[in-house]
From TrEMBL, chain A:
Transmembrane segments: none annotated. CDD domains: GlxB. The keyword Transferase applies. InterPro entries: GATase_2_dom, Ntn_hydrolases_N. The lineage of its organism: Bacteria, Pseudomonadati, Pseudomonadota, Alphaproteobacteria, Hyphomicrobiales. This is Glutamine amidotransferase. GO terms for molecular function: transferase activity.
Automatic annotation (TrEMBL), chain B:
Its EC number is 1.2.99.5. Keywords: Oxidoreductase, Plasmid. Gene3D superfamilies: Glutamate synthase, alpha subunit, C-terminal domain. It comes from the Bacteria. This is FwdC/FmdC family protein. The keyword Oxidoreductase applies. One of its GO terms (molecular function) is oxidoreductase activity.
Length: 301, 228
């Protein structure tokens, strides 16, 4: 099964509540998948700074004196630790250098995602525990996506949890299973993409990253995914300013959307949307099969 | 009139109450508040009760209904009125996929649109959709009637047996072995009755086209004996 949720805010006054709203949406979907849970939140960018969200199974030792170690490597970074995760802020343009230094200095650290805005938190366990562990409720932002997993295609691990992020400020959650992911992974590796897992959803994320790197916008990348990905999927995707949804042509994986003047919301089921403000008067609909939906803060302006 | 508020009463209490109604009971008009997308609301009814659900429901609402009248004043998730035996289910809003699946009898009225696989494997149920329906609807439909005032999606009536389909709008494509058929007087009379039962006014049976099985797929053909 799996449960997926997404929330894209139009009304800026809701931004401080993004983490709380998304947390409640995800917790409502707990019985669609108890294996792992994750949330990606797009917050306000800080000019000239980039963020890297990292995770470690040995957080205490890996995160201890990490700022100092990075400084010795010539990288001015600030590290804020949240349980098994940490957000490392560095100068914009130093992300790749920092990732290389992390791999050298702290090989146990795994990168969950990076970019100007996104922070990604994911762990094995139930949504309520994952949300509490990372204090997601207190986070504000412009948009976010979340996932609770019933594993089918790969191991129940932190790295196998969603969202998957394969490019700067890009991430994806998936309900379904892909049947051509091994082939597609080989092709993407040939194009220079790297993979952390054997998971099918990571391939979908990397595919979209690769297509956007070729110049497509999110909507165009999702449209080509309909031709190139084989299997069952409902995807919810975030980019720095955008939010997209697409379902495969068979469309057996459930999906409900709601839109008001204040937000666009996605849930695997209506239950996930039932607590949103003004849901009584929202336009609520089931996204059509093989149809791309996307919204963009920059394009809407 | 019993009022059950699902914000404070567990769903199982509602369904148990609906299952425990003795024959001849009078106080059988239930109102259900705050369903908020709950699954399995009012499933397994086997008495002539009425249930008015004030809001939207999740999976399998009114499943296996046998004689009840369930009205959802909102939209319904997947599998509404699945395997209905008899009675009436009315959805004031939209219905998600496989509405009325495998239904053996009774009437399902959807006042909005229905998604994919509406009436899949229907076996005697009558379904009237005021709006449009999605792809693969009435797949392997065996008997009963599917009436659509709007449009139908891809592969309508694929691998159809003897269910009868009436569509007023366009059909995106017909499934394997489903063909348009002549609308004769007996069908117009039948359709008029179905529209009346479903409370549809100002729409004439003559506005519909009839679709059914070409009967080439499910009948054994002696010419194919060599293939076995």
């Amino acid at each position: 099964m799996c449960g997926i949720v997404g929330l894209f805010l139009k009304d800026r006054s809701l931004e401080p509540k993004l983490g709380a709203l998304l947390s409640d949406m995800l917790i409502t979907m707990t019985d669609r998948g108890p294996d792992s849970a994750g949330i990606a939140i797009y917050g306000a960018p800080t000019s000239g700074r980039a963020k890297i969200t990292v995770q470690s199974a040995a957080a205490a030792s890996d995160f201890a004196r990490l700022e100092g170690a990075l400084a010795e490597a010539g990288l001015r970074a600030s590290v804020s630790v949240k349980s098994t995760h940490a957000v490392i802020e560095v100068e914009a343009g130093k992300v790749d250098e920092t990732r290389a230094a992390l791999a050298r200095l702290r090989p146990g650290i795994r990168v969950m995602g990076s970019g100007d805005c996104v922070e990604i938190y994911k762990e094995t366990g139930l949504p309520k525990d994952v949300v509490a562990r990372f204090d997601v409720r207190s986070m504000g932002g412009t948009h976010g996506i979340g996932h609770t997993r019933m594993a089918t295609e790969s191991a129940v691990t932190t790295l196998g949890a969603h969202p998957f992020s394969t490019g700067a400020d890009q991430c994806l959650v998936h309900n379904g299973s892909l049947s051509n992911h091994n082939n597609l992974r080989r092709e993407l590796v040939r194009e220079g993409m790297t993979f952390e897992t054997q998971n099918d959803s990571e391939v979908a994320a990397a595919y979209l990253t690769a297509e956007m790197a070729k110049g497509k916008d999110l909507g165009q990348a999702l449209t080509s995914a309909l031709d190139d990905l084989d299997g069952f999927f409902t995807f919810v995707v975030g980019t720095k300013s955008g939010f997209g949804v697409v379902r495969d042509p068979i469309a057996c994986k459930p999906a409900v959307m709601a839109e008001t003047d204040r937000y666009v919301a996605f849930g695997s089921e209506y239950r996930a949307l039932a607590n949103l403000p003004g849901i009584e008067d929202a336009r609520v609909w089931e996204p059509e099969p093989a149809t791309v939906y996307f919204w963009d803060h920059e394009k809407a302006a | 009139m019993p009022v059950i508020d699902l914000a404070v009463t567990p769903l199982r209490d509602l369904n148990s109450a609906l299952h425990a109604i003795p024959p001849g009971a009078n106080d059988i008009n239930y109102e259900v508040l705050n369903p908020r997308g709950s699954h399995a609301v009012a499933v397994g009814i086997d008495a002539p009760v009425t249930v008015d659900v004030k809001g939207s429901v999740g999976y399998y609402c009114a499943g296996m209904n046998d004689g009840g009248t369930v009205t959802v004043h909102g939209s319904a998730g997947p599998g509404v009125a699945e395997n209905m035996m008899s009675g009436t289910v009315v959805i004031e809003g939209d219905a998600s996929q496989y509405a009325g699946a495998t239904g053996r009898g009774g009437l399902l009225v959807i006042k909005g649109n229905a998604a994919s696989r509406c009436g899949i494997s229907m076996k005697g149920i009558d379904i009237v959709v005021h709006g449009s329906i999605g792809h693969m609807s009435a797949f392997m439909g065996q008997s009963g009637h599917l009436v659509v005032l709007g449009d139908a999606g891809d592969a309508l009536g694929d691998s159809l047996y003897e269910a009868r389909l009436f569509v007023r709008g366009s059909v995106k494509s017909l499934g394997a072995d489903c063909i348009e058929k002549e609308m004769r007087q007996e069908h117009l009379t039948l359709l008029a009755g179905l529209l009346e039962k479903a409370g549809v006014t100002q729409v004439k049976p003559e506005e519909f086209k009839r679709y059914g099985s070409a009967r080439r797929l499910y009948n054994f053909n002696i010419d194919n004996a060599d293939a076995y």
